[in-house]
Amino acid sequence: WAVLVLTLVLLGLWAPCVVSRQPNFIVILADDVGWGDLGANWAETKETPHLDQLAAEGTRFVDFHSAASTCSPSRASLLTGRLGVRNGVTHNFAITSLGGLPLNETTLAEVLQEAGYSTGAIGKWHLGHHGHHHPNSRGFDYYFGIPYSHDMGCTDSPGYNLPPCPPCPRHGTAVRVVRKDCYTEVALPLFENVTIVQQPVELGSLARRYAEEAVRFIQRASDSGRPFFLYLALAHMHVPLTPVLPPAPGRSIYGASLSEMDELVGRIKEVADSLGKGSTLLWFTGDNGPWAQKCELAGRLGPFVGAWQRQRGGSSAKQTTWEGGHRVPALVYWPGRVPARRTSHALLSILDIFPTLVALAGAVLPPHRRFDGLDVSPVLFGHSDVGHKVLLHPNSGAAGQVGEIEALRLAQYKAFYTTGGAMACDGSTGPAERHQPPLVFNLDRDIQEQEPLDVASREYQAVLPAISRAYTQALQDIAADNVSVADYSQDPAAIPCCNVQHVGCRCHGAHGATPDPHMEKRTPRLCL
């Protein structure tokens, strides 16, 4: 009998406990974070010791890009592995949006759920909240967070923003201050699954609650014996900034918020390590670059300043196709699998998260569609440092039609068919300019994108045919694909509201809710 049991164990046919060979996945997505917001990337940054430790114990990717330079399209691409021109999400959804990420698009959560994973989304969603566009209908077993950006609704403690926004009205007769960039009529909701558990959300406690819910989800999944996928979409570093602790003398509000985000990531890493080092892959990155018009409340670009555009007005960060708009920090940590203290210069993208995690889970990609992302597991494991040959950058609001591909990367060359600057801190914007032939920069020599190649130079004439060929082939591939169209129609009835009888849809107080956040969180308000 002993020999038989030993034989079965060795053959993998029997074991006293079943241990999944599938790895756990944690994807942490920061909001509006700059490439230079990590000390590991930019020596001037001192507020990220936990992230810097993560970089030291894992691999840092310095040529990593978001799939768009604004919220909804970037997140849609992360969860589908496809650019907005394919998955239909080309610009942001509103609080009144009826639609969201098209339902015929398959999400990473749906693929992993089918492969036996417990799936959770915590934080900002911004891919549609009405009806079946809610996270619980898109492959996530559990959801806790806000349905869109946390500046898209009023709160009682508005935090730091430029311009500052007023708090939610408490009475119908209150004088309401109407400002273009502020949501004053409807309070920001907090969801647990399909239930609004707080409206308006208490912004100052949001980071703590996200961390607590993430830990609970990880523990529940671990106790169940199933592998898990946690998508943690942080409110940091998007405005309004609401650091719990005021900045120390000589430190900025932004620095205090950055420290808070860093501590949150450190806590998640600690919990992941407690499950047994080597069982969990942690991938940290950002959805797009800093929101420059927020001035001192915006992040750090590092060297990616888009000097050519700045000379002509406007910002070269969020909403643009300049490097500062889409080059984002990226760290991957997986003890025993991903090399420590390694810096990779491979050209990678947030698009790669989908096919890479699908492959590592032993699942298969959805059929009848083409993907812009690659399985980059050989790069993660240090077996290769070769990523994309060509990477496409869609217009994201600063210039050109949103979603259209009018900038691309080919090796060290960056080509622009359209340029433009988003609103800068000084209020200026850069006019849209068409370039035919394209404006081309050699990023190996000119990371600041300051001086394009002379069209008459040998270098320009040598690389132009390859750029033109890559651009034409990309557009032809998209045209031949099974593309989706998102519904961007709006209706005020789609606004999440837990109490239509109360001004601003306010919950707590009107329903006699307890001020304790944990009890309040468990008290049902309204199921959509």
Automatic annotation (TrEMBL):
Enzyme Commission number(s) from the entry: 3.1.6.1, 3.1.6.15
Gene3D superfamilies according to UniProt: 3.30.1120.10, Alkaline Phosphatase, subunit A
Keywords of this entry: Calcium, Disulfide bond, Glycoprotein, Hydrolase, Lysosome, Metal-binding, Signal
GO CC, alphabetical: lysosome
Range of residues in the leader sequence: 1-20
Catalysed reactions, semicolon-separated: an aryl sulfate + H2O = a phenol + sulfate + H(+); Hydrolysis of the 3-sulfate groups of the N-sulfo-D-glucosamine 3-O-sulfate units of heparin
Annotated ranges, domain Sulfatase N-terminal: 23-363
Named cofactor requirement(s): Ca(2+)
Entry's localization field: Lysosome
Predominant subcellular localization, coarse grouping: other
Any one GO molecular-function label of the UniProt entry: arylsulfatase activity
InterPro entries per UniProt: Alkaline_phosphatase_core_sf, Sulfatase, Sulfatase_CS, Sulfatase_N
Transmembrane segments annotated in the record for this chain: none
Annotated PROSITE patterns: SULFATASE_1, SULFATASE_2
Family statement drawn from the similarity comment of this UniProt entry: Belongs to the sulfatase family.
Protein name, as recorded: Arylsulfatase G
Name of encoding gene: Arsg
